[in-house]
Design brief:
Chain lengths: 274, 363, 267
C-alpha cells in the first residue's frame, strides 16, 4: 500500500461511513423513494423559480459578499500593515469572532435589529419615509447579520494576499514618484486581487449554504436554499424534495470549489520539509 | 584486495555489494545501472556534483528509496527487500538529524533502546562512544545547544554506537567551515580505520574524497564514470569528465597517426603516447599541469614530448606559480613549485616538455 | 514582507472603515455581557439594574445543566476520536505521494467545506432509520468527523516543520515506522496535536446545525437548547449562557494559540 495511505485509512473510512454513505443515500433519495424518477427535481425547479428561492439565495449571498468586501478589505489591509504590537492585538480581535459560537453571534442581531430598536430607528431617520425601518425577519436583517458573521472569511484571504507583497515594490514605486494613493491603486490593490477573489468565493460559497442566520433572522419568511431544505424535512417530511434540493446545493458547491481552485491555485502543501 | 563475502575479522565491517541499481523520478533516471563493491572495512566515496545521483545511491543502500530497483548485499546477504530499520546500517545525515527533543546521551542511546539493550549496558556504551568522540561533558545538553562540529560528532557517535556493519555518510561536513572540516576529516578517517567499518561516503568535494577514501567512484548523471583509487583517478582518468573533475587538466585534441601511437595536433605538433590511441578520427590526451616543464630554449630529449609556445601570463600563488602558455591552438596551464627564482614574464617564447608516460590517453 | 505602509488618504480611510468593521464584528459578542445582567425578564439595553440571577438560574436549572453536560460529553468523545484519527491522517498525508495527498486532503477537509446543513440532513436521514437520533453515540460520531479537519490542519502544519531526515534517521537507527512515530515524531508535534484537540473541542461544543437535527427530546445539546430559547422565549438567560460561552471559547482559543507558539528547532 502506498506509504501514507495506511495512516489515512481510519479517518477516510470514518468519513466514508458517516458522510459519504449518508450523502449517497440522499442522492439516491432525490431520485425518488421507490422508483427511479425525476419528479422531485421537477418539483424543485417549479418551487424554486416560482417561490424565488434560488434567486433569493443568490441575491443574499452576493449582497453579503459586497458587505464583507466593504468592511473586510480594510480590516485585512490594516492587519497586514500594522506595526508589531497592533498586529497582535488586532489579530486576536479578528480571530475571536471566528472561534465564537455562531449562535451567540447571531443572537445579538435579533435584539439589535428589532423593530423600534436603536438601529431600526436610526435607519428610519435615513430613509425617505422617516418611519423606523424593518430590519428583522426579512432579507435585510439576514444580510446585515451574515456580513457580521462571515467577515473573517474575507479578512484572512485579503490579509494573506497583502502581507506577502514585498516592500521593495512599494519603495521602488515611491522612488519613481508615485503618490501614496496612486501606489495603492496601481500596485497594492492589483496584487491583492487574488485575496479579494479568494475571499469573495469563500464568503459566497459559505453564504449560499448557510443555515443559522437565515433561520434565526429570517423568521421563517426568508427562504434560502438551506432553510428550504430544513423546512421540507421538518414541516413537510418531503424527503425526496429535500434531497433533490440538497443535491443541487452540493452541485453548486462543487462548481464553486472548482472555480476557486482555478482562480486561486496556491495550494497549501502539507508534505514534510526535507 | 579481494572483495570478501563474509564478515571481517574485527566483527565490524562486512562487504557491501550493489548490483544494477536503478531509480526513477517520473521520467528522470536519477540512478542508472550502478554496480560496485566495497570490500570489508574499506572506505568508498561517491563523488559527484549535485544531481549526479550520489545521494540517491546512498539512500538506496540505506533503504529510503523503496521504489528503487537493484540488488544490495551486505555481508553476502541480500537486503534489498528489507525495510530501512532492519538493515543494521549506521547513517550520518547532512544536517545531522539529531532528535531535538532528546539530550545528547538520549540521542546516542536511541538505537540501543530499539535493540533492547539493558539500561546498564546502554549507559556504558553511550559513555564509551562519547569518549571516543571527545564529548563526554556534553551528555546532558540538547542538540540546539551544540556547535555544528559537536552536533556532527554526536551524529557520528549515534550512528556507530550499535556497531553497524556498514556506515553511510551523506555530505556530513558540508555545513562546517574549512578549518573544522579538515579537522573532522581527520577524525572520521581515524575513527573508521580504528573500527574497521565498511564505509560509503558522499561528497562533491574532490579534495575531501581523496583525503578520506580508499577508493572513489566519480559519478555523473546517474552513472559511475570511474571507480578507482584516488591516485589512479588522478593519474589515469578514464575519460574527459573524470579528468576534469578530479583536478586541473590540459586537453589536447588531434588526429591519431603512426598506427595510433601518436597524436597529430592542428598546428602540426606530434604528441607521442605511452598507450595506443582509440581507433577514431579524433582523440584527446590529457596532461596534468604539474607534469609540464618550461624551457626558454629549444629542448628535445628522448622519452619526452615537446611543444613551442609563448607565455601569456603568470600568477604567483605563494607555493605555486601558475603559467598560462599559448602553444599551438591551445592554452596550456603549467604549475611549478616556487623555488625562489624569478618567474618568466609574459611574452617569453618557451618550449613545453613533459614525459611521454605522463601523457594520458582518454577514451 | 509588508510592514508599515503609508498609502496616504487611502490608509486613513481604510483605518476608519476597519474600525467600524471591527465594531460590526465584535458588537454582537460584547453586547452579551450587559444584556445578561438585566434583572428584568426582557432583553434590554442598557440594563435597568445589575443582577447575576440569570447566571445562578442557569446553574440551578436542571435542563440547562443537563444540556451543558451533554455537550461536554459529546465534545470530549468527538475530540478524542478526531484527535486520534486526525493525527494519523495528517501523518499519512505528509508521507503520501502528491496525487494521493491531493485527493486525500480534499476528502478529509470536506466536512468543513460542505455546508453543515447538507451533512446534518444526510446523517439525520440515516440515523432516523437506525434509531440513532438523540443518542450520545450518534452525536459523538457525527461531530468527530466534522471536527477532524481542525486536528488535521494543526498537525499538518507541525509536521511540515519536522524534517523528513529525522524520521529517516530514526529508521536507520532501527526504529520501526510505528516506533519512529511514537518516539520521534509525536513528541515534536505534541503541542500542535493538543492545539488541534482544543480547537476541535471548541467547535464541537458550539456546533448548532448537526445538534439541531440529531438531538432528541431528552438529549439536547446546549446550542440546541439555546436555539429553542430563541424561537420560543428570548430572555436574558440566553445572554448569560452566551457570555459564559464567550469566555470559555476565548480561553480555549488562547490556550490553543499558546500551544502553537513554541516549537523545537530541529538540529
Amino acid at each position: 500500500m502506498s506509504r501514507g495511505l495506511l495512516w489515512m485509512l481510519p479517518a477516510l473510512l470514518m468519513i466514508g461511513l458517516l458522510y459519504g454513505a449518508p450523502l449517497l443515500r440522499l442522492a439516491l433519495l432525490s431520485f425518488g423513494e421507490s422508483e427511479w424518477t425525476l419528479t422531485s427535481y421537477r418539483e424543485l425547479f417549479e418551487m424554486w423559480s416560482y417561490g424565488g428561492t434560488l434567486l433569493r439565495t443568490l441575491r443574499i449571498s452576493i449582497l453579503v459578499v459586497i458587505g464583507c468586501l466593504i468592511f473586510g478589505y480594510p480590516l485585512g489591509y490594516v492587519l497586514a500593515f500594522a506595526s508589531a504590537q497592533w498586529r497582535l492585538a488586532l489579530s486576536l480581535l479578528v480571530v475571536l469572532p471566528f472561534w465564537t459560537s455562531i449562535l451567540v453571534r447571531n443572537f445579538a442581531w435579533i435584539y439589535l435589529l428589532r423593530d423600534q430598536g436603536a438601529l431600526s430607528t436610526a435607519a428610519g431617520w435615513l430613509s425617505p419615509s422617516g418611519e423606523p425601518a424593518e430590519l428583522i425577519y426579512n432579507e435585510t436583517g439576514v444580510v446585515i447579520a451574515m456580513v457580521s458573521t462571515l467577515l473573517p472569511f474575507m479578512i484572512f484571504p485579503v490579509f494573506l494576499s497583502l502581507i506577502s507583497q514585498s516592500r521593495d515594490l512599494r519603495e521602488a514605486a515611491a522612488g519613481l514618484g508615485a503618490s501614496p494613493a496612486r501606489m495603492f491603486l496601481s500596485i497594492t490593490l492589483p496584487l491583492s486581487v487574488r485575496g479579494i477573489l479568494g475571499g469573495s468565493l469563500l464568503v459566497f460559497a459559505t453564504a449560499v449554504g448557510f443555515f443559522v442566520t437565515p433561520a434565526l433572522l429570517g423568521g421563517g419568511r426568508v427562504l434560502t436554499a438551506a432553510t428550504f431544505i430544513s423546512q421540507q424535512i421538518d414541516e413537510y417530511l418531503n424527503w425526496p424534495l429535500a434531497a433533490a434540493a440538497s443535491m443541487l446545493l452540493l452541485a453548486v458547491m462543487l462548481v464553486l470549489g472548482a472555480v476557486y481552485r482555478r482562480a486561486c491555485p496556491d495550494q497549501v502543501d502539507h508534505g514534510n520539509a526535507s | 584486495m579481494q572483495p570478501s563475502a563474509s564478515t571481517s575479522s574485527a566483527g565490524h565491517g562486512v562487504s557491501l555489494v550493489a548490483r544494477n541499481l536503478e531509480m526513477r523520478y517520473g521520467s528522470v533516471k536519477a540512478v542508472e545501472d550502478i554496480s560496485f563493491e566495497v570490500p570489508a572495512g574499506s572506505f568508498l566515496t561517491l563523488l559527484g556534483a549535485s544531481g549526479s545521483g550520489k545521494t540517491t545511491v546512498l539512500r538506496m543502500i540505506a533503504g529510503f528509496e523503496p521504489e528503487g530497483r537493484g540488488r544490495i548485499e551486505i555481508g553476502g546477504v541480500e537486503v534489498s527487500e528489507l525495510p530501512a530499520h532492519r538493515r543494521d546500517i549506521g547513517m550520518v545525515f547532512q544536517r545531522y538529524a539529531l532528535f531535538p527533543h532528546m539530550r545528547v546521551a538520549e540521542n546516542i542511546a536511541f538505537p540501543l533502546r530499539q535493540r533492547g539493550v539493558s539500561r546498564d549496558e546502554r549507559d556504558a556504551r553511550v559513555e564509551e562512544m562519547l569518549r571516543n568522540v571527545g564529548l563526554s561533558e556534553l551528555a546532558g545538553r540538547r542538540p540546539s545547544q551544540l556547535s555544528g562540529g559537536q552536533q556532527q560528532r554526536v551524529a557520528l557517535a549515534r550512528a556507530l554506537v550499535f556497531r553497524p556493519r556498514v556506515l553511510l555518510l551523506d555530505e556530513p561536513l558540508a555545513a562546517l567551515d574549512k578549518q573544522l572540516r579538515d579537522q573532522m576529516q581527520g577524525e572520521i578517517r581515524a575513527l573508521q580505520r580504528r573500527l574497521h567499518i565498511t564505509t560509503v561516503y558522499v561528497t562533491h568535494d574532490q579534495t575531501e574524497a581523496f583525503a578520506l577514501s580508499d577508493r572513489v567512484a566519480v559519478m555523473n548523471a546517474g552513472r559511475i564514470e570511474q571507480l578507482a583509487t584516488p591516485r589512479e583517478l588522478y593519474e589515469q582518468p578514464g575519460n574527459e569528465f573524470v579528468a576534469r573533475f578530479v583536478g586541473d587538466s590540459n586537453l589536447l585534441r588531434g588526429r591519431p597517426t603512426h598506427a595510433n601511437a601518436a597524436l597529430r595536433l592542428t598546428d602540426g605538433s606530434l604528441i607521442r603516447c605511452p598507450r595506443p590511441l582509440p581507433d577514431k578520427a579524433q582523440a584527446t590526451v590529457m596532461i596534468r599541469p604539474e607534469k609540464l616543464d618550461l624551457h626558454t630554449h629549444d629542448n628535445k630529449a628522448l622519452g619526452y614530448n615537446a611543444m613551442n609556445g609563448v607565455v601569456l601570463d603568470v600568477v604567483f600563488l605563494g607555493e605555486i606559480l601558475e603559467y598560462r602558455v599559448q602553444a599551438g591552438d591551445e592554452q596550456i596551464l603549467v604549475r611549478k613549485q616556487n623555488l625562489g627564482r624569478d618567474p618568466l614574464s609574459a611574452g617569453t617564447p618557451v618550449t613545453l616538455t613533459w614525459a611521454v608516460r605522463d601523457t594520458v590517453v582518454l577514451a | 514582507m509588508a510592514t508599515q505602509a503609508d498609502h496616504g488618504w487611502v490608509t486613513v480611510a481604510f483605518r476608519v472603515i476597519a474600525a467600524a468593521g471591527l465594531i460590526y464584528m465584535l458588537l454582537p459578542i460584547v453586547l452579551m455581557f450587559p444584556l445578561s445582567v438585566e434583572p428584568g425578564h426582557m432583553l434590554r439595553f442598557p440594563p435597568q439594574g445589575f443582577s447575576l440571577h440569570w447566571y445562578t438560574d442557569y446553574f440551578a436549572d436542571g435542563a440547562w445543566i443537563a444540556s451543558t453536560l451533554l455537550s461536554l460529553k459529546v465534545a470530549l468523545g468527538a475530540t478524542l476520536i478526531a484527535t486520534l484519527l486526525g493525527t494519523l491522517a495528517a501523518t499519512g498525508l505528509a508521507r503520501a505521494s502528491t496525487a494521493i495527498r491531493t485527493v486525500g486532503l480534499a476528502i478529509l477537509m470536506s466536512p468543513i467545506v460542505l455546508p453543515t446543513l447538507l451533512i446534518a440532513v444526510a446523517i439525520y436521514g440515516v440515523y432516523a432509520s437506525l434509531h440513532l437520533v438523540g443518542t450520545v453515540v450518534g452525536l459523538i460520531a457525527a461531530h468527530s468527523v466534522l471536527i477532524m479537519p481542525f486536528v488535521i490542519m494543526n498537525v499538518s502544519i507541525a509536521l511540515g516543520a519536522v524534517p523528513q531526515s529525522l524520521e529517516e534517521a530514526a529508521s536507520s537507527l532501527g526504529a520501526s515506522p510505528a516506533k519512529a512515530f511514537l518516539q520521534v515524531t509525536l513528541p515534536l508535534i505534541g503541542r500542535s496535536v493538543a492545539a488541534g484537540a482544543v480547537l476541535s473541542f471548541l467547535v464541537s461544543f458550539d456546533e448548532v446545525v448537526i445538534g439541531m437535527f440529531l438531538s432528541g427530546i431528552d438529549t439536547t445539546t446546549l446550542p440546541k437548547r439555546m436555539l429553542d430559547g430563541v424561537f420560543y422565549e428570548m430572555t436574558p438567560m440566553l445572554a448569560a449562557v452566551s457570555s459564559i460561552l464567550i469566555v470559555a471559547n476565548t480561553l480555549l482559543m488562547l490556550a490553543a494559540l499558546a500551544l502553537t507558539r513554541r516549537h523545537y528547532r530541529a538540529g
